[in-house]
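This week, think about what follows.
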Amino acid sequence: MSDSITYCYPVPSVLHSAGASQQLMLAGYSEVEKVQARDFFQGTLEQPYITARCLITLSNVVKSNFTLTPAQASMMKDPIVTAGADKLRFEGFSHCAGVYARVDVLPGGHQGIFPANGTVNVDFNQPMINALGSVGRNAHLQLSVGAQEINLQSRPEEMITERKVPLPIKWIKGLTTVQLFLAAAECTHQFNKMQLRQLFQSIPSGNVKADYYLVKQGNKPVFTPAKSANAICIGGIHRLKLLEPLLPLADELRVFAHPDMQSTTWQLYFGSVRFNLTLSREAWRGFSGEGAALESLIADVPDHLVAAIDKYGYVNQEFNATLLAVKEHIPFEQVDQLTGRLAAMGLLGYDLDENSYFYRRLPFKLSRILSLNPRMKDAEQLLADDKVLIVADGEDRVEARVAGTGITHTVILEKDNARCTCTWYAKHQGQRGSCKHILAVKKKVYQDF
């Protein structure tokens, strides 16, 4: 499989000026929508200056890279926008897939209509970004997401292309994984304007390879290389400098941490606009290889049920698992499996403040997304080849033998812990998701149960 896919926009995104009024028209693209002659949002932004700066910072995240060479990082990738439930959400990843960013324009942050709910890639070209930088504090900014009424497609088989954009596969994988980290995160700190500025002044200069920790010294938050009790661990702390342009404008900062410190989220608040920046454990370690979504794919959920819930989410644009279970008379365990599977397919994002998932229909073919989990495919092949043997199956402990190439691996499952004798487990100790042998054993145990 290629490391990237290529898509194209029929027209570029532009920002038009007409006197004191400006109109931002974001051109969208989706490879799953056959008919794209519609907009997803038309209206005005209530905080145009703040929103413009947030979108510029989002574009800086998408252009950034913390592992590859400058030549490899030179191609800009475009974010996606989800319109629905009276909200606009712009999402993007760094090229290395280790930094996730999202701009949420909430009710009160816009005045307009949503002709259609949906998700598209949006064209963030350099002239449009430059124009956003010129948006003043007293500007009046209209926004159109989709802008399909000005497309240049004269015949179904002929489309005039403005530009082609390569999108890395790991970017898509990261998007389907990071939501599971967000769902497990908990708010650990809330800082006001003065505190967040003090905190960011303690970021060391340069690209720091050592871990740093967020601690509070009295009422003053600081970053320090010294670990202490209840400290929040941040790898690749220099990545937080992406937020610096927004700090003078923010009212508040909330920090969310994964229980195992696998990610940290830094969320800035600007009235009805939020900016979310989520960092992977280390700068070199992107979300695309974490394997967090693999556990969600173990249970075999019927395709018709996944399709039905997909349709439910598309219509309602929100996903309340508890309400869904009660309303549709679906067992809670099965709804949890559905939630995990839909998130692993990229159809759910996660809102930390609302503590719930939101629906997004990715503008990529689901068949491609589901094919991006080679460890799960390898696990299924082990089962198909009858290479998994359960030798002990107790209430709290399962032991299995998994035949490999010239070697047999032992897998032990004990309550919430799992271990294997393979080199993958020895290297990662479960911190990058389960190995194919553990996945195969879990899947077999689940099927037999």
Q: What stands out?
A: Confidence is low (pLDDT under 50) at residues 71-76, 147-162. The radius of gyration is 23 Å.
